[in-house]
Design goal:
- It comes from Sagittarius serpentarius.
- GO terms for molecular function: sulfotransferase activity.
- Belongs to the WSCD family.
- The chain is built from 16 helices and 16 strands.
- Strands 7-9-8-11-6-10 form a 6-stranded antiparallel beta sheet.
- A hairpin with a 2-residue loop joins strand 8 (about 285-290) and strand 9.
- Among the domains are: about 145-230; about 245-315 and about 325-340, no CATH class; about 340-530 and about 545-565, Rossmann fold (3-Layer(aba) Sandwich).
- The protein is α+β, with helices and mostly antiparallel strands and about 575 residues long.
């Protein structure tokens, strides 16, 4: 009897295991089938989208990368960040005197990173190779298609200007952007990258190797892996509205030997600024220098740094005579062409032994500092966060994991002992809290390059924002002074006023050396793509007296802490108003 019972028990155990296995297999098969059907429905929906019609995109993408200005004009005011930071809840007013809101803020930032990461991963579905037959160069592209060419990042031919857009890149946007900057050719790669230049790439590739579909234009080709779809856009330049006109840089003393200083020159009896600028633009030089009927093209260099301007009267009447002040002075103009001597960037070939943070309070100019560091060193900077809008602006380190150590330094707004002690050293960027608070409020409601509306400033969000974030400005500096292992304190105002000396100091802190010409190139491209545009807020005082009293106390506290650590105190303009 016992033996029969034992056999029955053994059979039931096997049956239980078998039932469990079959149930699991059934659920897995059902999930796979559901996913396959969902993907099929999405693909069928995509086929119904016309070549001119991009897939629905959040309103926050309206200002990302290269966009049609008409879209910007018609868009309603609102948050512009891809990741929708506006949805995050701000700390409550009654908690402003406790550190609990800092914990809440860190939780919000983690939520931000997770949200962007999932959106980014969902957009990286590989394109079906079988769909290549459906890709074509649509008729509405106004430029002339030149073919598919090999793209070598080390010896890139189209290097005049570079743009990225992971969601809305189209052939037309790339063509228009290059035409507005007076370039002859526009090339697209990886479905989301746009390159401009005046020289056609040498090495042609097979047409089928340009098989990447444009991210913002179904059915159109945008190059491939190390392949460029190249268009000639010279015929568009006459009707293109220039994004940047020729800019007058001033009157300067001419170098002793202009021919040795400038690589290209032109002599024209009736020389005009437009003629000289067009000549230098075709030669891909950012500077057009005029002395009488002589036109010279080149870059800012140690021999001609543009640091010491002369009185404009010394150049007056230059076009009416063969020389000005006996040929000792010249007029200098900035062409629409970008200075490309410092635009090449890459990841570190070996992992960095020193983990460096670029730390600041939000709105203190961290993105601008990253732009300067990347162009000065030639290496990408990383980020503790994932920001698709910044990736589209060329910050490829945004997509790299912040602890990979493949970037020269890592952006962070974090504070607190644990977050700070993860880094071996840090560049601590500090900005006037009045300016920082306004800049962060603008970013919160209008993105990296926009301005908040009058309605935003007059709403109840502004006083709540000041009460919460003012204490964060102070605690951020105090925490880094307390827990930071090795610090370089840089004031935003000093960096803006004395760019090259301060930038050189930052580069040396990163254990790198750079040439003077590269630093001058950075200075020539100092703003990058990060100047705010749009309707600037009117001249009004957004800070009440109560806000000023609160902020001023924090300023005095931080100034005292800096001096206590033998650092230079806050600049005078921080002094309470």
């Amino acid at each position: 009897m016992a033996k029969a019972f034992f056999r029955l028990q053994k059979f039931l155990r096997r049956t239980q295991f078998l039932l469990f296995f079959l149930t699991a297999a059934y659920l897995m098969a059902g999930s796979l089938l559901l996913l396959q059907r969902t993907r099929l429905v999405i693909q069928q929906g995509s086929r119904g989208t016309s070549a001119n019609e991009a897939l629905p995109v959040p309103d926050g993408m309206a200002r990302v990368g290269i966009v049609d200005r008409r879209t910007l004009q018609n868009s309603r005011p609102g948050p512009r960040l891809l990741v929708g930071l506006d949805a995050l809840q701000e700390p409550a007013l009654d908690q402003r005197h406790s550190p609990q809101w800092l914990v809440s803020r860190n939780s919000e930032l983690r939520q931000l990173r997770r949200r962007w990461f999932h959106r980014f991963i969902s957009d990286q579905e590989p394109m079906q190779t079988a769909g290549f037959k459906g890709l074509k160069h649509t008729a509405e592209h106004k430029g002339t298609y030149m073919g598919c060419f090999s793209d070598d990042s080390r010896e890139r031919t189209l290097k005049g200007a570079v743009f990225y857009d992971l969601r809305k890149m189209t052939v037309s946007h790339c063509q228009e952007a290059c035409a507005e900057r007076a370039y002859t050719y526009a090339g697209l790669a990886y479905g989301a990258e746009c390159y401009c230049g005046n020289k056609l790439p040498v090495t042609a590739s097979k047409p089928e190797e340009c098989n990447s579909e444009c991210k913002g234009e179904k059915g159109s080709l945008c190059g491939g892996v190390n392949r460029l779809s190249v268009y000639r856009v010279e015929e568009l330049r006459a009707g293109a509205r220039r994004r940047r006109n020729v800019i007058y840089r001033g009157c300067f003393r001419a170098p002793e030997n202009l021919t040795d200083t400038f690589p290209a020159s032109l002599i024209q009896p009736n020389l005009t600024v437009e003629m000289c600028s067009e000549f230098c633009s075709k030669k891909e030089f950012p500077l057009a220098v005029i002395r009488g009927r002589e036109c010279y093209c080149g870059y800012p260099t140690g021999r001609f740094s543009l640091h010491d301007g002369a009185d404009g009267l010394l150049c007056s009447g230059m076009h009416n005579t063969s020389s000005a002040a006996e040929g000792k002075y010249c007029l200098v103009y900035q062409t629409p062409v970008q200075d490309t001597r410092c635009t090449d960037r890459k990841f570190l070939t070996t992992k960095s032994k020193v983990f460096v943070a670029l730390s600041s309070f939000p709105g203190a100019g961290n993105t601008w500092a990253r732009h300067l560091i990347e162009h000065a060193t030639g290496y990408y900077t990383g980020s503790y966060y994932f920001d698709g809008a910044l990736y589209n602006k060329g910050f490829k380190g945004e997509k790299d994991h912040w602890r990979s150590r493949r970037t020269i330094c890592v952006k962070t707004h974090e504070s607190g002992k644990t977050e700070i002690e993860m880094f071996d050293s840090a560049i601590l960027l500090i900005r006037n809290p009045y300016k920082s608070l306004m800049a962060e409020f603008n970013r919160k409601y209008a993105g990296h390059l926009g301005y908040a509306t009058d309605r935003n400033w007059k709403s109840k969000e502004w006083p709540d924002f000041v009460n919460s974030y003012a204490s964060w400005w102070a605690s951020h500096v105090l925490d880094w002074l307390k827990y930071g292992k090795r610090l370089l304190v840089v004031h935003y105002e000093d960096l803006k006023q004395s760019l090259i000396p301060k930038l050189k100091e930052m580069v040396e802190f990163l254990n790198l050396t750079v040439t003077e010409d590269r630093l001058l190139c950075v200075e020539n491209n100092r703003d990058g793509n990060f100047k705010r545009s749009g309707a600037k807020q009117k001249d009004f005082e957004p800070f009440t007296q109560e806000m000023k009293d609160l902020i001023n106390r924090y300023i005095l506290t931080v100034d005292e802490a800096l001096r206590g650590r033998n650092f230079t105190g806050l600049p005078r303009e921080y002094v309470p108003r």
